[in-house]
Amino acid sequence: MRMNVSARPGEVDLPPLSARSVVLSLLLGIHPPELAAKELVRGVEPFGVGGSTVRAALSRMVTAGDLRRTDGVYRLSDRLLERRRRQDDAVHPDTRVWDGGWEMAVITATGRGPAERAELRGRLSALRLAELREGVWLRPANLGRPWPVDLGNVLQNFTARPDTPAPDLAAALWPLDTWARTARALLAHVEGSHRPADRFTALAAVVRHLLADPVLPAELLPAGWPGPALRTAYLHHRHRLTAMVPGPDA
Description:
By secondary structure, the chain is α+β, with helices and mostly antiparallel strands. The protein has helices at 19-28, 37-44, 51-64, 78-91, 114-126, 166-173, 176-192, 196-211, 227-242; strands at 34-36, 67-70, 73-76, 102-107, 130-133, 136-140, 155-160.
């Protein structure tokens, strides 16, 4: 995500969302994630996307496997339902009291190609682990999320208590100050945006940024950590924007 990191509204460089992105953002933000075509057309109007553009985007998204269409109702595909689950986890992370232990995953499989290695790195990052050195990933054991069973084929899990002071280790593993500056810039931009389209674009960037939040124990975070404020603002404004989407009886 490219942006000019600044805490003042108007200085976050956010490109406008495409019709596909607006449709996906709407569906990812409502429960259940499904709308009829006419509801989608009406729902995207406040964000500056015309009906013909939306219908063309819907056709392409069905062909690409992003959406499923049944009796004129568009629903997220299984792949994008998984994306919504990750998004929901980013907004409502499942945390537990931290006892000082760390999760450590050591990659033991060999002979994997570049694509397989990149996929594994992506999955470990999505689990909010960081790479200490090649093949060694870790994070504080303060998350309650399940561990994918199939990863047992390529790595081994351990519980560790590193000698390095935990705050120093966390600061070395994650760019916490950079994440916080960007979060404050996004927060200022969301609060300073007045047009629905501008705020919607900012919220899409917010949820992407929350996916990169390591969700560390409070004692390992810099003072004034903006994660909770960013989540609160996202939920408040997402509710306001999705309330603009007409229901079947509108």
